[in-house]
Design brief:
heterodimer, A: mainly alpha, flat, B: mainly alpha, 12 helices, 79% helix, globular
Chain lengths: 355, 320
């Protein structure tokens, strides 16, 4: 997999894609599992920081406005810590824990202001704050967490509007970000973590139908007579999957009228249709396909993990009987195997290696 | 650093003209052949698992309109078809392996149907234990990592269910601890066997499987260590010896002998959790002073930063 940076630079230079001296190689990105470890530790530390504030400054917890205000101040302090010590491991970890504690405190105080009727406006405010943090905070892990939180807050905003299915539209944003990774490479240190955070939020949202309505109605969420059903969300996801396949088909230079292009798009539509009754199939497959298309094994793994999660959680989906689920799974399995046969025979037959 | 990350880093500095072309030149983006192999595997496995799960769900529904003979016939015909599929498609091809995997899942459905029809009075753990036992020959013949992992998962489930039943009758003093000891011992021995076997057997050399085993065993002993911290009066205390030995073995196996940063990161997290639990118990029990909370938070931050620094150093030394 890895040629030396010098060899790679030479190859790019000879293809006319780069010129001049090779720049010094930047620091390797931190592996995802180290980031996951730091993320969990950050949340543990944030809980103890909240305990510190709760015991030492009890008046902050007692007043909703004070809690929200102190929370915001902590977030600003975290920004200052990130800025003051950009290369320090301790500083990054400290800033992350302070910011998480601040966000927790702010959300607690801010939502409490609305008493029992937390509406879409409140959730939208939190979503906007998190989007802002994802853009501004100069820390990879913070960007992932903030983008994830923004996705979930947006979902709760849609649920309070009675249109929870719109949250699945996040699939379109996720697909767009990953498909445009190369053109957006100039901003990759900001956009890649945001894309990961939104992908995680999307996987979470796709898993929501499995936990029934009680779980969706978090304490304090006012569910206005819901219109729209979960399958409408799946239509959005299916649309994102089809759009992804269309972009990839165009990218490989296949003409519209080409039979294999039509087969590829029809296959995506068939998988999307199967997903209407078995939520998650289209979403998981879309993420796996995006991961493969970008040569990104972590993203591919996320998609496969999502698929495994949905398949096992499907058993507990409350809305339909096991008999119906069994029929849906049998049909889905048949569709997937049929699509495979079409792909192997018609879309990318063995002898064609040129696309 | 991988070629993909190198190119993206150079692109961010504005040093690469056409990023897509550069990624293609470096061979990071998949070719038509890569796409074919990828879609082949992805669709084969998701399709096979969906079909086998459909049969399991069907049996679980216990549909009264369909007679017991019809149900047995259905599951047995599918089971035989899957086995014939494995035999005809070939043991070395992915389609053959998928058939064997489906047959293994269908075997579980058949056993569940048997228990459901004849009301044998057996406990759930016996279903999983019998399933694991009957499946074992196929697993050995199959020469296939994912099938071994399915077998290990079923065995883990049988252990958990066994203790869930017997904890109610006796051993309520130790049951909470004992099941975690058995899970820890089982998964750690499986990990050891896997790593030793993978040196000679090429098809076992897939990192995801031993990593999952290490995480399963590590989660069990971390739970035991935290249990010892908070319930030390009722705890056997064996973990005081076992935990450092386990950490030492992991360090030797995955730092000295070979590199596996994921397992080392998991071990770091385990240490952070256990040390935090110990500090929290000593400092916060009885006297909830604000300073103690702040101190524990700083300890967690310090440990995590140190662990992150160490793992990043190791990542820099490790190629790929």
């Amino acid at each position: 997999m890895s040629a030396t940076p010098q060899a790679l630079w030479a190859r790019l230079a000879s293809a006319g894609l780069a010129s001049g001296e090779m720049p010094p190689v930047a620091e390797s990105p931190t592996p995802w599992y180290v980031r996951l470890m730091l993320c969990i530790a950050g949340f543990i530390a944030a809980l103890f920081l909240l305990g510190f504030i709760g015991v030492g400054f009890a008046f902050v917890m007692e007043s909703r406005i004070a809690a929200a205000a102190v929370g915001l101040m902590l977030v600003v302090a975290a920004f200052a810590i990130f800025r003051a010590a950009p290369r320090s491991d301790f500083g990054a970890m400290f800033g992350l824990a302070v910011s998480l504690a601040g966000q927790g405190l702010f959300t607690f105080g801010f939502l409490a202001l609305f008493e029992r009727s937390v509406g879409s406006g409140a959730w939208l405010t939190i979503a906007l704050l998190e989007i802002g943090l994802a853009i501004v905070m100069p820390n990879y892990l913070h960007r992932v967490i903030s983008a994830y939180a923004a996705g979930l807050a947006l979902m709760y905003a849609f649920i309070s509007l009675g249109a929870g299915f719109l949250a699945a539209g996040l699939a379109c944003v996720v697909a767009w970000l990953w498909l445009n990774e190369a053109p957006l490479a100039k901003r990759q240190s900001m956009l890649v973590p945001i894309a990961y955070g939104l992908t995680l939020a999307f996987i979470h949202i796709e898993g929501m139908p499995f936990f029934g309505r009680e779980w969706m109605a978090m304490p304090g969420i006012r569910v206005v007579s819901p219109w729209g059903a979960p399958w409408m969300g799946e239509v959005l996801v299916a649309g994102a999957l089809i759009a992804t396949v269309i972009v990839l088909v165009r990218r490989s230079g296949w003409a519209w009228e080409d039979r294999k292009a039509m087969f590829a798009i029809a296959a995506a539509a068939a998988v999307g249709a199967a997903s209407l009754k078995a939520p998650g199939i289209a979403g998981g497959l879309m993420i796996a396909i995006l991961g493969h298309a970008n040569g990104n094994r972590v993203l591919l793994g996320l998609g496969v993990a999502g698929l495994l999660f949905y398949a096992s959680a499907y058993y507990y989906l409350l809305a339909v009987t096991l008999l119906v689920k069994s029929a849906v799974l049998a049909a889905t399995g048949a569709v997937l195997l049929a699509v495979r046969a079409i792909v192997l025979k018609t879309v990318i037959p063995e002898d064609r290696q040129d696309a | 650093m991988s070629e993909r990350n190198l190119i993206l880093a150079w692109a961010e500095q504005g040093l690469v003209r056409d990023v897509s072309a550069a990624l293609r030149t470096a061979g990071v983006l998949p070719s038509a052949g890569d796409w074919r192999a990828f879609l082949d595997r992805l669709l084969l496995w998701s399709g096979a698992v969906a079909l086998a799960a459909a049969v399991v769900f069907f049996i679980a529904h216990n549909w009264n309109d369909l007679g017991r003979f019809a149900k047995f016939a259905l599951v047995q015909v599918l089971l035989v078809a899957a086995v014939i599929g494995y035999w005809k498609l070939g043991a070395e091809r992915a389609t053959g392996k998928a058939s064997l995997m489906a047959a293994a899942i269908l075997l579980g459905a058949l056993l569940a149907l048997f228990g459901q029809t004849y009301q044998t009075g057996a406990d759930t753990w016996e279903l999983f234990a019998t399933w694991a036992a009957l499946m074992a020959p196929w697993v050995i013949v199959g020469r296939f990592a994912a099938l071994w992992m399915l077998w290990l998962a079923i065995a883990n489930l049988a252990i958990v269910l066994y203790y869930a039943v017997f904890a109610r009758f006796f051993g309520f003093l130790f049951a909470g601890e004992e099941v975690f000891w058995v899970l820890f011992a089982f998964d750690t021995l499986a990990l050891l066997a896997w790593e030793l076997a993978a040196r000679r057997i090429a098809w076992l050399d897939e990192r995801w499987a031993p990593r999952l085993l290490a995480i399963a065993g590590g989660a069990a002993i971390t739970w035991l260590a935290v249990h010892a911290v908070f319930e030390w009066r009722r705890d056997s205390g064996a973990v005081v010896l076992a935990y450092p030995v386990w950490l030492g073995c992991l360090y030797y196996a995955y730092r000295v002998r070979r590199r596996d940063l994921l397992i080392l990161a998991g071990a770091c997290l385990s240490v952070i959790v256990v040390v935090t639990a110990a500090f929290a118990r000593v400092l916060l029990e009885g006297s909830n002073t604000a300073g103690s909370f702040l101190f524990v938070a700083l300890v967690v931050i310090g440990m995590a930063a140190a662990a992150g620094w160490w793992l990043k150093q190791l990542a820099r030394e490790t190629p790929g």
